[in-house]
Q: What sequence folds into this?
């Protein structure tokens, strides 16, 4: 995956532009910018050459790229349905169809797949929610308040994020083992400890993204609420958070996917097999040469990827601009 | 009050409110918060304070004065912030900043400190710990020594021995704390129970046999007095170390060979002919790790080619994903085309699947003898996709292109659509060709909005651990290097391997590599962001 996180300086229009792709064009008041309005023309007879020059070649590119994109995915689905376990047996696509591999991965006493799955959902879910909350708090203060050190704060948040946590993995490991000596509940080999480490990155690029979006919400809304007697906390929790829901969803998704994918810190901090996440567990499973049950791994991969892919496709649709329209009378 | 809000939220600072305005705002603020809010606030702070007090208590009992003081001060500051009427921005920033400081800023600083120590396997404790572990590893039973009756006891999971010496005196101790006399419950001349300890029953003794036979309880504060060990959980014998520690001279003497090992400041007891007794202890070694990384021939070679490959990998990945993404964005940015939506959804699937899974699947498909690509697509060829130094690099780049192009496709589509149509029309009216319009108008505008994302993408790929580790594990392995490094390793995966895999863990060297990466990333970011500033002036 290329850079997952949007970056400072991103015009929010860019994000909205990405999103427009998935809104149903017919429900939108205006067509996406950049699309020429269609003019009604008298029908010309169909000419293959002209069609190919205009749009046909684009379909050829599309088909080639879709094939490139999908073939690993089709391969893994096919081998997950293959009842035989080996890598070689998975090569004939969809030669045998059966759910044996799914049963194997879910019930194998040696491989606590369901535990890993639960751990991953728990860790990534809590991390995503807490990241959104901490980031939104910070973005609100940067966007709505003026204080000494505001500019410095915004800049330093971006600068610190340039140095990902995995660079400091040795120090994180030693810090967590020290914390574990004093407070075993939040040290090495605990989910709480791992989530705390992930939250170190909560104030980061995501905060910057939210900050940009918060700025698009007119300040007159806050003022109207203030005149009606609402305090800053009430404005934040009941008005602003609802107006910026789309960006919260995007940040939650990014944070969730990043935590699901995180291997380095998780593999160093989570020692017991029962504590591990999918990324750590499945990687160790396949890297073990004696374990050649490729189709069981494929079944596990399909199960693991489904929630993430579903979330991704679902939230892409969820994000619609123009929520602030009509909020101010 | 600092909540003045400009009509337009801009960076310029607003006029300072007068004192009356500030007072009025304060009153309004106080009146607007309900009793409920206050109760919630007090409750939350109460919980935080209770946890902090508990933490300080634990820390003081384990004599961590500095950490306890820090926890105390931070808690005090948090209370002051949330009870004050004026610290509004701080109220919103504090929770995130605390996590940021501990798990992002502090750990980076700590990495810097570790880089200057010899921390790692054989050097991971204090000198006292090294002495006691050396003494206990060299224990031998004293011939004809009396038998001590022992009872195995347990306190919060830590095993101890309740020892009755031949005179009938009972004393208790653990591997860390020497024997101290206690008043114990006696049964037939043998101490069987003592307050504060749980006596293990026979089944527990059997279950924890390995732990019990390992247990050595120091006889007194002087490590030269030896230790009591028990082979069966009921009778113990005095064992003496065949190493003798002379605290005054700071030397270890091997009693059977007579060799004297002294502390020469290298973090371990060393004999005259350079033999080291391990475990040693942790010391600050200055720039040793950096010097070793750059000048030790066996280390400098790998560092050089790994750094080169890291740059190549990151640059080629960004360029290839960007150009493919841009090309596709242009191709599918034509309204006349039907079914664009379906192509788009199918093409972003590689981005939606967690990358560690995709990389593992690709690793399976690229297997030399059984993989799908060799067996099916190439009809039984045996291309060494992941095992040849050059081909493995190409494979990594192809897989990373597959993982990364959908993101660039989305980004470029968004950027293209945010360019106003009038520009194209105006250029067309002026007689510009479509290619010229794209090259001279659209591409520069697009680059302005995408440049920061390209820099971020570079930084991400520079440390793209997952794709390397899952696909090739950095392999094929370089057999000449003393550290476990391979030909497709990038810097970050090399750090991971040096620190956490292989026979010996070298935290010091790994942290030194981290600091090197840190400096490289910092320099590149500064240069890149300065360059993009010049891009923005095009507008």
A:
């Amino acid at each position: 995956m290329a850079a997952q996180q949007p970056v400072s300086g991103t015009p929010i229009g860019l994000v909205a532009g990405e999103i427009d792709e998935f809104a149903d064009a017919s429900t939108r008041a205006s067509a996406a910018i950049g699309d020429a309005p269609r003019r009604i023309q008298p029908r010309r007879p169909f000419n293959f050459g002209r069609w190919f020059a205009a749009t046909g070649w684009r379909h050829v590119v599309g088909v080639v790229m879709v094939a490139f994109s999908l073939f690993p995915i089709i391969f893994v689905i096919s081998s997950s349905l293959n009842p035989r376990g080996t890598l070689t047996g998975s090569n004939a696509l969809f030669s045998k169809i059966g759910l044996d591999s799914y049963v194997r991965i879910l019930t194998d006493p040696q491989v606590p797949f369901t535990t890993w799955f639960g751990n991953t959902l728990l860790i990534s879910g809590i991390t995503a929610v807490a990241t959104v909350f901490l980031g939104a708090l910070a973005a609100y203060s940067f966007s709505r308040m003026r204080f000494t050190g505001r500019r410095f704060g915004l800049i330093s948040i971006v600068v610190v994020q340039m140095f990902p946590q995995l660079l400091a993995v040795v120090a994180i490991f030693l810090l967590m083992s020290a914390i574990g000596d004093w407070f075993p509940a939040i040290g090495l080999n605990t989910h709480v400890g791992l989530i705390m480490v992930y939250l170190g990155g909560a104030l980061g690029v995501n905060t910057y993204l939210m900050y940009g979006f918060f700025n698009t919400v007119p300040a007159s809304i806050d003022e109207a609420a203030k005149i009606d007697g609402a305090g800053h906390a009430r404005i934040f929790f009941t008005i602003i958070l609802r107006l910026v829901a789309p960006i919260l969803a995007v940040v939650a998704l990014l944070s969730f996917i990043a935590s699901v994918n995180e291997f380095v810190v998780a593999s160093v901090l989570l020692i017991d097999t029962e504590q591990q996440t999918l990324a750590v567990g499945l990687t160790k499973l396949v890297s073990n040469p004696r374990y050649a049950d490729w189709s069981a791994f494929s079944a596990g991969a399909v199960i693991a990827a489904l929630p993430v892919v579903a979330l991704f496709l679902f939230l892409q649709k969820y994000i619609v601009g123009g929520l602030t329209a009509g909020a101010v009378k | 009050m600092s909540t003045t809000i400009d009509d337009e939220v801009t960076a310029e600072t607003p006029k300072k409110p007068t004192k009356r305005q500030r007072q009025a705002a304060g009153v309004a603020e106080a009146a607007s918060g309900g009793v409920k809010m206050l109760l919630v606030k007090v409750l939350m702070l109460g919980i935080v304070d209770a946890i902090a007090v508990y933490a300080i208590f634990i820390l003081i009992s384990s004599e961590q004065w500095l950490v306890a003081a820090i926890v105390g001060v931070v808690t005090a500051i948090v209370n002051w912030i949330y009870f004050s009427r004026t610290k509004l921005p701080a109220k919103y920033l504090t929770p995130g900043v605390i996590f940021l400081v501990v798990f992002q800023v502090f750990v980076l600083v700590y990495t810097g400190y570790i880089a200057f120590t010899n921390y790692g396997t054989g050097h991971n404790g204090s000198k006292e710990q090294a002495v006691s572990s050396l003494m206990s590893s060299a224990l031998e039973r004293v011939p004809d020594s009396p038998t001590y009756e022992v009872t195995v006891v347990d306190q919060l999971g830590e095993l101890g021995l309740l020892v009755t010496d031949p005179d009938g005196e009972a004393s208790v101790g653990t591997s860390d704390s020497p024997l101290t006399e206690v008043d114990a419950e006696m049964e037939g001349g043998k101490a069987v129970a003592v307050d504060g300890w749980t006596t293990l029953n026979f089944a527990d003794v059997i279950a924890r046999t390995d732990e019990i036979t390992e247990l050595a309880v120091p006889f007194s504060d002087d490590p030269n007095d030896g230790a009591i060990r028990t082979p069966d959980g009921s009778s113990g014998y005095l064992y003496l170390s065949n190493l003798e520690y002379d605290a005054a001279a700071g030397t270890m003497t091997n009693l059977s060979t007579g060799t004297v090992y002294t502390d020469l400041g290298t973090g371990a007891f060393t004999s005259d002919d350079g033999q080291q007794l391990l475990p040693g202890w942790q010391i600050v070694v200055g720039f040793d790790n950096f010097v070793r990384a750059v000048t030790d021939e066996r280390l400098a070679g790998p560092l050089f080619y790994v750094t080169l490959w890291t740059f190549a990998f990151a640059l080629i990945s960004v360029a290839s994903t960007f150009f493919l993404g841009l090309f596709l964005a242009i191709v599918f940015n034509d309204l006349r085309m039907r079914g664009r939506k379906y192509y788009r959804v199918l093409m972003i699937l590689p981005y939606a699947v967690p990358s560690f899974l995709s990389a593992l699947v690709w690793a399976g498909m690229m297997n030399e003898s059984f993989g799908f690509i060799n067996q099916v697509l190439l009809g039984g060829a045996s291309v060494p996709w992941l095992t040849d130094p050059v081909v493995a690099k190409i494979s990594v780049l192809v897989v990373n292109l597959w993982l990364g192009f959908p993101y660039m496709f989305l980004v470029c589509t968004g950027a293209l659509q945010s360019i106003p149509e009038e520009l194209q029309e105006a250029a067309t009216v002026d007689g510009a060709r479509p290619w010229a319009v794209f090259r001279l108008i659209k591409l520069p505008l697009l680059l302005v909005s995408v440049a920061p994302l390209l820099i971020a993408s570079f930084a991400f790929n520079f440390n793209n651990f997952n794709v390397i580790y899952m696909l090739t594990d950095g392999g094929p392995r370089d057999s000449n290097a003393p550290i476990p490094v391979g030909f497709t390793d990038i810097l970050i995966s090399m750090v991971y391997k040096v620190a956490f895999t292989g026979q010996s863990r070298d935290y010091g060297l790994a942290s030194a590599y981290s600091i090197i990466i840190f400096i490289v990333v910092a320099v590149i970011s500064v240069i890149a962001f300065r360059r993009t500033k010049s891009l923005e002036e095009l507008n």
